[in-house]
Amino acid sequence: MQATAAVLVLAYRQADFVAQAAHSVLAQACEPIEIILSDDASPDATGEILEAIAAAYRGPHQVRVRRGQQNLGIAGHYNALIEMTRAPLLITAAGDDLSTPDRVAKLLAAWRASGERLDLIASHLQGMRQDGTPTQIVPVDDLAQWPDARAWLARRPHVIGAAQAFTRRSMERFGPFDPRIAYEDQITTFRAIVSGGAMTIPEPLVHYRQGGVSTRQAMLTAEDLTGWMRTQNGRLVAEMEQLLRDAQVAGLHEAIEAQLRTPLARARYLWALSQAPDAAARRALLREHGELPLAWRLRKFFKLNYPGFNAGVNRLRARLKGRA
């Protein structure tokens, strides 16, 4: 019989933590569920650890392992896992986080209490350091306060994808994630708000490891700075373009396009600057993007045209901080 819920364990380069993460999912005290332990082509032992855990498991849940042959990134990884299951409720579990034993049971209870109307259920998180020491509660916004697109347009909610469950039907309505997307949580939340709705369980159901492999690096060289600008703005462009496509499906393109017009133009300009091969190409971009304020364009032009200067400022700040 098809399970109602599938927990998608997304891991990459998490050999030190993935066994704990997987065991916390296998230990869920709930009806039988589907669990997919997935490694996104890690260069370390993450995949081997997941295979060994699945082979040794003896319990009520259906467990499968996926080992990617090439790294897909967050969005591509999600797309691949969603294709592997037909469960109506999809629950995220990061490869370095821990799910409380009652997490799935509480998510399912909340979903069923809504008559299975909701398309996303979130929860708070319990922060923890790299060594597992608990820190503070990490709250997210009460998504019941975002009943429609008008509320989302007024202010985006604070959400964390590591503690979300979303429906298969919302993915089927809007389609797969753009593979360039690095953070799916705003996409899944917007899709839910303009569909069946969303809510937040006001307690921490995920122990959230902070300072992992995705922690932002110090930009101490020109190459660091340019690479970060290229990556970050490419991600912003991808997210906003995805939101525009989803808004089109929801019949809200005009309102969302009006809100995203300026930030999307800025992100596209910065991404293009970081991609430009030389100063002449950057000067051409400076002239072409007349829809943006000239002073702002010039400031970003100089930052990207002379990245060594900005990296030097960052090195000086790092040295001064080290002396403090």
Helix content, binned percent: 40-55%
Give the CATH architecture of the largest domain.
Answer: Alpha-Beta Complex
Could you name the CATH homologous superfamily of the largest domain? Spore Coat Polysaccharide Biosynthesis Protein SpsA, Chain A
Using the CA coordinates, give the radius of gyration: 21 Å
Count the domains: 2
Q: What is the SS-derived class? A: alpha/beta
What is the number of helices?
12
Distance between the termini: 61 Å
Give the overall silhouette.
globular
The CATH class of the largest domain:
Alpha Beta
Written as H for each helix and E for each strand, in order along the chain, the element string is: EHEHEHEEHEEHEHHEHHHHH
Largest sheet: 9 strands, mixed
The low-pLDDT segments are 213-217
- Number of strand elements: 9
In the CATH hierarchy, the third-tier topology of the largest domain is known as Spore Coat Polysaccharide Biosynthesis Protein SpsA, Chain A
Mean pLDDT: 92
Q: Estimate what percentage of residues fall within beta strands.
A: 15-25%
Keywords: Glycosyltransferase, Transferase
Protein name: Glycosyltransferase
Organism: Piscinibacterium candidicorallinum
EC number: 2.4.-.-
Could you characterize what this model shows?
- The protein is an alpha/beta fold.
- It has 2 domains: about 5-210, Spore Coat Polysaccharide Biosynthesis Protein SpsA, Chain A; about 220-324, no CATH class.
- About 50% of the residues lie in helices and about 20% in strands.
- Strands 1, 2, 3, 4, 5, 6, 7, 8 and 9 form a 9-stranded mixed sheet that branches.
- Strand 1 (about 5-10), helix 1 (about 20-25) and strand 2 form a beta-alpha-beta unit.
- Helix 8 (about 220-250) crosses helix 12 (about 305-324).
- The chain is globular, with a radius of gyration of 21 Å.
- It starts with a strand and ends with a helix.
- About 40% of the residues are buried.
- Mean pLDDT is about 90; it is low at about 215.
